[in-house]
Amino acid sequence: MLDQFKKSKKYFKKTPNLENYEKTYREFSWKNVSESELTWFDNGKVNAAYNAIDRHLDSPRKNKIALYYEGPNGEQEKYTFEEMSQKSNKFGNFLKALGVKRGDRVFIFLPRNPYLYIAFLGILKIGAIAGTLFSAFQEQALYDRLENSGAKVLITDKEFAVRVEKIRHKLPNLKHLVLIDDESSLKEINDSSAELHIDRMNPEDYAFMLYTSGTTGKPKGVVHRHLAILSEHITAKYVLDFHEEDTYWCTADPGWVTGIAYEILGSWSNGVASVVYGGRFDASKWYEILEKYKVSVWYTAPTAVRMLMAQGIDLVRKYNLSSLRHILSVGEPLNPEAIRWGLQAFGLPFHDTWWQTETGAIVIANYPCLDIKIGSMGKPFPGITAGIVDDQGKELPPGQEGNIALKPGWPSMMKTIWRRPEKYKSYFLNDWYISGDRGLKDKDGYFWFIGRADDVIKTSGERVGPFEVESALVEHPSVVEAGVIGKPDSLRGEIIKAFVVLTKKYQDKVQDKNYSDQLKQELSLQVRKHLAGHAYPREIEFMDKLPKTRSGKIMRRILKAKEMGLPIGDTSTLEEF
Ligand code: PRX
């Protein structure tokens, strides 16, 4: 079995930007790259959006295409860097006229279309804080995020606004709903001046925020500063390996961190031409996009690779994908079969990258210049110290399993958790940032992922908190309590499985198989409608009771062990089972 992939010359259509990993790692300094790679205003001021777009206007990149957009119905648009600059300037002026000030939260709830990107840049340019909302979110998910952030403005469209209207009366801070497909709003945006004084920000000032899930409680607002663009830029340069002539496609949605760091900030700050496809997953369409736009660098997710695999190799063969030269993935374990299939289908190995919403940029990766150990996430990025530590924060020797941890202080490390300073502090132990993932480091310094240390679920690469799904389930009149786990799945990595205790009345009713099936469907729908189109349980099992600690906490660990037929482990703290 192939366990190591040695790179030969045929895999290099270009000399990698990072030619010598060891040397760069040894000599790397954030201070040096911040001077050589970013454009600064006087007195140490900076703006991430200016670095992404406007700084290119003094170079031939001004007229280069920044964004190729293809919509769900095949509609096509393209924008140069200059056009992106002007459009986002207009958007910034439009927001100012609405009364948006520095530090105000402006959220975007849009499908992937050019306005999402233009609005994001415009928000950062005037010093406001941009928040993005995944297009599958439903009322509860939207309410939790808009309420906690105290968002003042929401940029959306007529179709999505319907979901917001139902909760708007509970959001006193939300002053404006801007519909980008409403003629009068569009006219106001277009009539705004294209001249904007881009705000000079302190590197520490907040730039954008994203809500992400943990094991317990509501999603938390991870806040990133303007300086985060330094990590995003340099990782894009060395890991995504952008060259001037590249056309790049990142399949992520800016509702998630990958879409912000590598579809807006780090990618455009390198001046790369980006493709955005606004439609749903479809294998033929994806290959068509790769072929039509002559994509050379492609960043995607393991579930997508597995979905392509499922369509077979013959389909790939129908397309001319000879422009591809570098392919990568993120978000969940990249299984060896997917790498092997990538080699067969594209003649290229997928390069795994590991990072999180909280790390703001890639921190561990496989690099074009290094051989790949198949199944490993690779090595720490220059400027990042990664280690495996025990539960006391003591570093463990190579080969031992523990918590994947990082030394704090890289530029895109989250700046805070919005209004929850104690939660922010809880990430740090003995001068390490603790990721919540478990893994090990081998003797050659490669990191290997083992699993989550907590109950966070990764389904199709998307992070889902079990508590949110449980809360949505118990809203249904039939449900007394629910325990939710991630169940391993060969396509989606994990699927959501719910164990549900019903009220006495419903317990009797589900004796009838038809009724039981119907209720399961209804419960799944309840979660979809309430929380998000993607975060619903694909499997539901009715139980008489759930395993709990003496203090009444549902033991998801036991549910998972039972589901997988594994030993249940220490049950001495259990109240009942
Ligand atoms: O468990 C790890 C998994 O995704 C988590 C972070 O999720 P999120 O904040 O949504 O960010 C995803 C995109 C940056 C991690 O704690 N994860 C991410 N990359 C990998 C991974 N698991 C295994 N291998 C990876 N390469």
UniProtKB/TrEMBL annotation:
GO annotations of cellular component type: cytosol
InterPro entries in alphabetical order: AMP-bd_C, AMP-bd_C_sf, AMP-binding_CS, AMP-dep_synth/lig_dom, ANL_N_sf
GO MF annotation: an example: acetate-CoA ligase activity
Protein name: acetate--CoA ligase
Keywords: Acetylation, ATP-binding, Ligase, Membrane, Nucleotide-binding, Transmembrane, Transmembrane helix
Family membership: Belongs to the ATP-dependent AMP-binding enzyme family.
Top-level division of the source organism's lineage: Bacteria
Organism field: Candidatus Gottesmanbacteria bacterium CG1_02_37_22
EC class name: ligase
Residue span(s) of domain AMP-dependent synthetase/ligase: 62-417
Spans through the membrane: 115-137
Keyword Transmembrane belongs to the record: yes
Pfam families reported in the protein's UniProt record: AMP-binding, AMP-binding_C
Domain AMP-binding enzyme C-terminal: residue ranges: 468-553
Keyword Ligase: yes
EC number(s) on file: 6.2.1.1
SUPFAM superfamilies: Acetyl-CoA synthetase-like
An individual GO BP term: acetyl-CoA biosynthetic process
